[in-house]
Amino acid sequence: MSARLSRRISAISESATLAVDAKAKALKAAGRPVVVFGAGEPDFSTPQPIVEAAIAAARESGMHRYTPTAGLPGLKAAVVAKTKRDSGYEVDASQVLVTNGGKQALYNAFAALLDPGDEVLLPAPYWTTYPESIRLAGGVPVDVTTDESTGYLVDIAQLDAALTPRTKALVFVSPSNPTGAVYPPEQVAAIGRWAVEHGIWVVTDEIYEHLVYGDAEFSSMPVLVPELADTCIVVNGVAKTYAMTGWRVGWMLGPQDVVKAATNLQSHATSNVNNVAQRAAQFALEGDLSAVAQMRDAFDRRRQTMTRMLAEIPGVTCPEPLGAFYCYPAVKDLLGKQIRGRRAGSSAELADLLLDEAEVAVVPGEAFGTPGYLRLSYALGDDDLVEGVTRMQKLLGDAS
Ligand SMILES: Cc1ncc(COP(=O)(O)O)c(C=O)c1O
After folding, report:
1. Atom 14 in ligand 1: which residue has the minimum CA distance?
2. What is the pTM of this model?
């Protein structure tokens, strides 16, 4: 008898970040004072003028109909202009496909590029959606594992070691979820040149481009390595920059043949992205970057508080995150120790213990391909942040 569900779909695991969020929310709903460090989204509301633009769009009858799969011409033009303004990358509107968030851009990209068995180099720790979307497209994710000793940055020697005749693509994400690492421009350029030299595609996720702190700077790989343009797909969206996670608007930029193929796929899967959300995104992109500047200031303050407080816990090592809104401390030294009468043998068990004993929700490193770590988002209010990390300090400070 055939299985009830397909092997392909049964193999997809539940998003660990969403699972932690759901568990924490259930506890909160039951009246528990849980501090949730699981969120992958800004805690700010979408700026009101963007919301007003959506309301105006909803009143236009043209917005009530199907529109071109690849996106409203106005939004595509805004994406072209915004890309040139923010990263310096110049593309034509025919190289833009508007998608339901950066997530669909990734699914489209891997589906368009990969044949069964094609290998994709995936620097780990990685965001959970990459391996799933690679596998669903028939590809094989090949982890290139980094750790806190290099600030979670991969180097060329590691890429060389992972390269095989089946390698088709490399995933590159800076600033990174879950580590907050930001590659210096020289290293971005070196990795881009390596990809060109070996004829490897790069899928580069620029969704956190505006969330960089201190002296760190964002750099776009195809701008630093123009020869990469014909074998590079850029993924981006409005979610993190404009606090628009729920609107579901992202895009992919790529060579015309890839964008055409991905558009064909999307035309059968989901068609055009919600028109009202597209118009809100267009308004956001055509405006200035003042809203993200304000969010960045708040995130920077919280980043420094969280990094300092985590580093005070014996057994926790936390490199300073330079981008996005996550800390990714190593907790290997705490595993196996006695903590309030219990022992956590893995970071997943430690995350459970933190939830049970301190009512603090974090995502274990297992979710990102590197056990022995925790991911904490600092996209939450300053007081909650201090309360949550203080509870962690108290609980983990007792480890013996
Ligand atoms: C690295 C990275 N890329 C893409 C996304 C997806 O964003 P979207 O909401 O636009 O699908 C996320 C969301 O968490 C992310 O962390």
Report:
1. 40
2. 0.96
